[in-house]
Amino acid sequence: MKPFTYVVPKSLAEASEAGKQPNTVLKGAGVDLIDRMKERLQTPERIVNLLPLKDELAGVAVEASGELKIGATTTIAQLEQHEALANPALAGLQAAAALTASPQIRNRATVAGNILQFTRCWYVRSEAFHCLHGGRGPTCLAMTGENRYHAVLGWMDCVRVHPSNLAPPLLALDAEYSTRLGDKVRRRKFTDLFPAEPRAQTAEHTLEAGEIVTAIHVPKPAAGTRTAYCESREKLTFDWATTACAVKVVLAGGKIAAASVVLGAVAPVPLPRPKAAALLLGEAPSATLFQKVAEAAYAGASPLAHNDYKLVVGKAIVREALEQATR
Amino acid sequence: MSTPRDVEITVGYPALPGLEDRLEKRTVKPAEGDAAPWDATTKFTTIGTDVDRVDGLQKASGRAKYTYDITFPGMLQAMILRAPIAKGKLKGLELDEASRMPGIGAVVALKDLGAKVRFVGDAIAAVAGTTLNHVRDAIEKIRAEYDLEEHNVDYVVATDAPLLSATGQIEEPWAEAAELEAALKEAKVTHEATYRTEVQTHSSLETHGGVARWNGNDLEIWLSTQATFGCRGELAQACKAKGIDVGTVTLHAEFVGGGFGSKFSAGIEGLAVCLLAHAAKVPVKLMLDRFEEHTTTGNRPGCLMQARAGVDADGRIVAWDWRSFGHAGFTGSGGVSVPNYYTADAKKRTAHKDLNIDADPPRPMRAPGHPQGWFGAELFLDELATKAGIDPLQFRLKNDREAIRLDQWRFGAAKFGWDAARARKNEAGARFLTGSGLASARWGNLGGAGRGTPHGITCRIHQDGTVETRSGAQDIGVGTKTMMAIVTAEELGIPVARITAMTGHTTDPSGPASGGSTLTPSIASAVRHAAFLAKQTLVEIVAKHIGVPLSEVHCAGGKVGSGTAQLRWADACKLIGPNPIDERGKRHPNYAEKPFHASQCGAQFAEVKVDTWTGLVEVTRMFGIQDCGLVLAKKQAESQVLGAMIQGVSYALHEQRIMDKRSGRMLNGDFLRYKITGVRDLPRLECHMHSIANGHDSVGAAGLGEPPSVATAAAIGNAVFHAIGVPVRHLPITPDKVLAALASKKG
């Protein structure tokens, strides 16, 4: 690890100012950052530690409006165990938190860190490989290399997948996020956090230098809302999803009145599938319907040489999530 | 001293529940001065009981110091520069700039100009400096240039690999074998299929490496190794070959974080740390990182295997043809073993060919060649049995020629509930399918006395009543220290708590490498012999003290004395004085008489649940029965068996090295993408230790490291076949392969 300056800010404004400096990283738990720094994949000159700003950034609270506010540096374990999540409408978010990594990591890693994390692509994460997303080569190496864990949907010139498992349920819940950039406070739709055109040379997220995610807001769910989150893996202990799906359904009189379907781990961004979700509207839950939705969720997929299994598995996971949410 | 005499002993084992005794009388001739043999009639107080690992608290509390933990004031840290290319020649190597970098104490070249580079990770040079950060900065300043050659890291497309069909079946014609082919033609049912396994890395938790310190010409080295004496000799010679005048070499490996066969040699990292410490004239530490560990310290090679065989109307195997193509690295063997006890009466043939690729060569790994071969052979047998309409257990009972395992099959099947498990039908259209499978295990080793100097053990009894038992051989984590303490306690008739066992310092008596499951059988009777001699000396002291003839004094049950003149152990030891009793026991050769059982048998049973939607296989329960001669340390023996089953689940379902073909570099050389089974992936595991009196030396221990690791993946493969009705013939059984198998069934 190369030497660096460690900045402990006293306020959000100070943190944001420090974060604007060149070659500076805003650090949550640092779970992944430290690994990449040890391998010199990332060599920041300055690290701004956000963890001390607990009052501004940490904690889960239900606001007077019924909206759920999740502080950016809330740990994943704190989120999972918060009483507000013991609610069928938030079951998907709780499941995603519970499935994340290992207990040790959940006790340390932050909610925003999970959402903003760097892709797990084994080419871009190795100093030996020079690819476009890493800014060191002309092309995506995974596209024509070993790509069993890579994208099957929504990829352009880079087939990385977005690894966050909290992002899909938050998107399904129509969450919003607040940021602080200098003095500027903004609140936007969660979809704005991810690039609309996820190219090799775009980052995993749309934040500007020095922009700090301060909180995530989950609107009060409508009566009858249920969510679920499921992921496929190769092993059950500490693994990355090969495919993931978060769904939301609002049931009224046995029919689905509102729905969303969001895929994870199959595209460079967490991927809402509104056309698939629309098939659910006005329908009663059934295995046939879910099969149709699963097919639609993967419509237009272009698998790579080693990952067409993801289509079969991914559709199964969509069905499973829908079954769980309507059970 | 007693003279050689005939001793009648009882060998074999009392009945496993529901079965019959297998006990036999045998006459053996123990060597002069050796303890009389333990046998099936011996009543033990400590052996075979549950004794906690003697160093468990040290390990759990961090007081146990592994090589990784060794440090000295002024010690330098070191790293190796690794070749980024898979094949070529080293054309240029410029080290000057690196050696002028701040904090750098030494830089050494590890490869000569013009020498071949054989794989990504081949060692080029090593650097020592104040911190790893300084070293890394300096490594980046080394300019190494290469002449590139074309490489191949995929053995399936090696130039001499067999032709494969689109579905992965070997299509190469079989070499002619008239009798065998005639037997196949006559067989009632025949079957032919191809199997495949992938590379598994050893993944020892402690990586390879060492800490070296020179005192003039004398070298002291702490090394993470499974062969203390072998590495001592290797390093002395290697340093000499580099022009260093080597005096003595003392090696320490008191605690070792696993080896699994990858740590017999000190390797290039062992030599590098010695050279760096010599050049820097201060202690140097060099431990590999995880990527180096995955990519430069060997592996269990992958292989392609094909069988064709036939059974007669009675379900007996009459023809067996087997060939394997092993995945070597740029050198080394990808050898594959197959069970031979099912095919005793068959016309048979086995053939093997190694395929070289431009990658890190294999090293022995826990039962080299066996888990892969057993996976192929046992799955093939289940496919054949299914074709012939015979239950897999009945098929084994008909064909297995090892009497001990026949008992184990019957006992294990009853314990596992085999018949009920096989009779249970999955509901039509069910998402989750359950299935059960079994497989056999075999290994063969009863240890030996050692080449040249026999393996020795020091036993010291101190005046405070404590006892030391010491071996210069290593405990790589399996419980050797505990075994030594147990055997010593049994021989002396005192509690284990009085005994301190020490391993891993070459200043203690020599012992074998931890390999081939030979360590325990090779030193257990030496441990006993040392304690036996120390006991005799104590008895002499006590006899003199109480004035009783020597022959009337006994040491047992925590007392030493004769008749009513008994001294408690602690009081007897007070007579010893400040210099402890210090005896050197040795490993006598195995008795000339045939042992009851010259190898080890085992059987394992597995139940799986397959998610037909996602292809995920979950092993839900496993049962294993395993013999290893006399079971000395029961808890540690069970840990060996359960640990092997855990490693086997991982091999069956998860582990595989994934290479980038263009660069020849491993892509998953970490613990995130190189997947090792975790707690939530594990089944309910149970095992039964099948203790057998073998009568081959005074203790009768057989090895246990390898045998339980042979059957697991095979049993799981068979269970998956039973669950989904089609075999998955390629390890690891990942979701994509299960889904492809299910699709092939529909199609």
Strands, helices and their partners?
The complex is a heterodimer of chains A (about 325) and B (about 750).
Chain A (H helix, E strand, L loop, with lengths): L4 E3 L4 H8 L4 E4 L3 H8 L7 E4 L4 H4 L2 E3 L5 E4 L4 H6 L9 H9 L3 H4 L4 H5 L51 H6 L3 E6 L2 E6 L22 E7 L6 E8 L10 E10 L2 E10 L6 E2 L1 H5 L8 H11 L11 H18 L1
Parallel strand pairs in A: 1-3, 2-3
Antiparallel strand pairs in A: 4-5, 5-8, 6-7, 6-8, 9-10, 10-11, 11-12
Helix pairs in contact in A: 10-11
Chain B lengths: L6 E7 L8 E7 L27 H6 L14 E7 L5 E7 L1 H4 L4 E6 L6 E2 L5 E7 L2 H8 L3 E6 L29 H9 L2 E9 L2 E2 L7 E7 L2 E6 L4 H14 L7 E4 L14 H14 L3 E4 L2 H7 L2 E2 L2 E9 L5 E11 L19 E9 L14 H19 L3 H8 L3 H14 L1 H6 L8 E12 L12 E6 L5 E5 L8 H13 L6 E5 L15 H28 L7 E3 L2 E4 L2 E4 H6 L6 E6 L13 E12 L5 E11 L6 H20 L5 E2 L4 E2 L17 E7 L21 H13 L10 H12 L1
Parallel strand pairs in B: 3-14, 12-13, 17-18, 21-22, 28-31
Antiparallel strand pairs in B: 1-2, 3-7, 4-6, 4-8, 5-7, 9-16, 10-15, 11-12, 11-14, 16-17, 19-27, 20-21, 20-26, 23-24, 24-25, 27-28, 29-30
Helix pairs in contact in B: 8-16, 12-13, 15-16
